[in-house]
Amino acid sequence: MVRILPQTKAAAVNPLKSSQPLGAALAFLGIDGAMPLFHGSQGCTSFALVLFVRHFKEAIPLQTTAMDEVATILGGADHLEEAILNLKSRTKPKLIGVCTTALTETRGEDFAGDIANIRQKHAEELAGTEVVLANTPDFEGAIEEGWAKAVTAMIGRITRPGEQARQSKKIAILPGWNLTVADIEHLRDMVESFGLEPVIVPDVSGSLDGTVPDRWVTTTYGGTSVEDIRELGTAERCIVVGEHMRRPAELLHRLTGVPYTIFQSLAGLKAADRFVSLLSAISGAPVPAGVRRRRAQLQDALLDGHFHFGGKKIAIAAEPDQLYQLATFFVDMGSEIAAAVTTTNMSKILEKVPADSVQIGDIGDLEALGAGADLLVTHSHGRQAAQHLGTPLMRVGFPIFDRLGSQHKLTILYQGTRDLIFEVANIFQASRHAPTPEALDPFRHREMPDELRSSSLARH
Length: 460
Fold this sequence. Notes:
The protein is of the alpha/beta class and about 450 residues long. It has 18 helices and 14 strands. The strands form three sheets. A six-stranded parallel beta sheet has the order 1-12-11-10-13-14, sandwiched between helices. Helix 7 (about 145-160) runs parallel beside helix 10 (about 245-255). The mean pLDDT is about 90.
């Protein structure tokens, strides 16, 4: 059984994790007409905004209650009320997602009560805008928990409760934070190929896909509509991607009775087969020829790629669900997990990671544990560790700011797994040093007998 090793250092060295409020804001960015609002200081918001802009290379709508010293001591309810009313009058969002920060959480304010009072006091002014609260202190959890809390809060606040008439073709999908724009688009295409109608919550593929609007838009544009969230109870089934999305799925089930199926990973032949089989069972339709063809391509890629993976030592640092996804992928390809580092011990999925131990830590721990590995796998902050160790780096997760197109990289189902195999195999091939003629000489380390050496010297 894998051992979960707690963090022992007093400070992070080259931090691995991003904060809970950032994860919640990312989830709110997947909703059409949304405006994430950080309840805290301007510095908290600015730091998250910089990471978002560097990763997505897009203009990101993100606002703050701008708590100052006086509000921090006396309470921030007035700042929260003013920020919500200003956003409503100036940007007219369909949803305001309030993400608390360590500054306000440490004080222990009643945020839910404050927002309830604001809704009641300004019911007419806030008509047409949902205000959703996600309690996301920076001092615990990470981006994974923040994303899940925001989705849970949206379902709890917006979704219409009670058993409702089910639409037989409608499928609710709750994707994990680590699914890219390309992953979610591919997920939608796969579901639609079976004649089903997916509703994805949240859907960053509609709002963070790199398109340029024909006019200036102050909120998010594209993504899941508030009305779609409200009517989730009419779905035939809910498909959940990632262990951290279990809680919002359970809440949806309690509110509406919609059954759910959890996929802890969608990478790899086995996971993709299970997903496709489920879609076929729900729809009653055979697997389309195009999907069968992509499966055959993955089988060929597995044959072609396993020569490059066999016996390789991999060091991974990522959020728990992404760590599990990547570790199982590499082990299935014949590699060994030499080091596994993650951000928090709050996820049960860590018990299933195929490694001897999982270290709760940072990139500094990855560098220490990954010495001798053939490949480092983490986000862009791992580039210094890779340089120090002389080991190639595969960039995954958030943030990736020194490469273009990270959101358009496919990583799931048949096609995404095939692309992952090719990417890793090409990294290994590119980092392999060609042998010199001297290195190929089988006699280069053999000692020459004295009589042969003296005869050779006599000839020369």
